[in-house]
Amino acid sequence: MKRLLVSIALLAVALSPALARQSNHQGKTEAGLAKLAPSDRFQQVCDIELMERLRRADQPYNKPDSVIAYALGDPTISGDILKGSGGAFRSGGIWYQYSFTCSTTPDRMKVISLEFKVGQAVPRDEWDAHGLSIH
After folding, report:
1. What tens digit of pLDDT does each residue of 77-92 get?
2. How many CA atoms lie within 13 A of 27 on its CB side?
3. Do 104 and 110 touch, CB atoms closer than 8 A?
4. For the chain, how long is the longest CA-to-CA vector?
5. In the beta sheet, which residues pair with residue 76?
6. Residues 41, 61: contact at Cβ < 8 Å?
7. Can you tell me the distance from the alpha carbon of 67 to that of 132, in angstroms, rounded to the nearest whole number?
């Protein structure tokens, strides 16, 4: 029993810095979001949530580094719901189309639900027309 308690204590000590960094990062993200206009915050909080979900996915596009909800078409807003079919995200140097429905809290600081579907890769010869960088 004593060994188990020591193991748990050592695990807690080892995880504390990582959890503190995660909490600090989340706090900075929320502080940055709070400075944005609600309409900009709406899109950003949904983009951040999409990136996090993609990173946890077991897919070839699980390393996103950029998300643009309006890249291929403007999303619509209805109350606290942002919906679109013309989003694009970049992963591994390739842009992919996605459609989504994102619901947030009224202050637009937290995502309540996010449904998304990844489509096809955006053809490279269309990147410039949609403002998608090649970097």
Report:
1. 999 999 999 999 999 9
2. 6
3. yes
4. 65
5. 83
6. no
7. 10
Compute how many other C-beta atoms are within 10 angstroms of the C-beta atom of residue 95: 23
Helices (runs of H) and strands (runs of E) counted in the chain: 2, 5
In angstroms, rounded to a whole number, what is the distance separating the alpha carbons of residues 108 and 89? 21
Q: Which residues contact 72 (CB under 8 A, 6 or more apart)?
A: 85, 86, 87, 88, 97, 122, 130
Please state, in angstroms and as integers, the Cα–Cα distance from residue 5 to each residue in 12, 13, 16, following that order: 11, 12, 16
Q: What is the pTM of this model?
A: 0.73
Q: Report residue 93 as tokens.
A: 């140097």
- Compute how many other C-beta atoms are within 10 angstroms of the C-beta atom of residue 89: 25
Beta bridge partners of 103: 81, 113
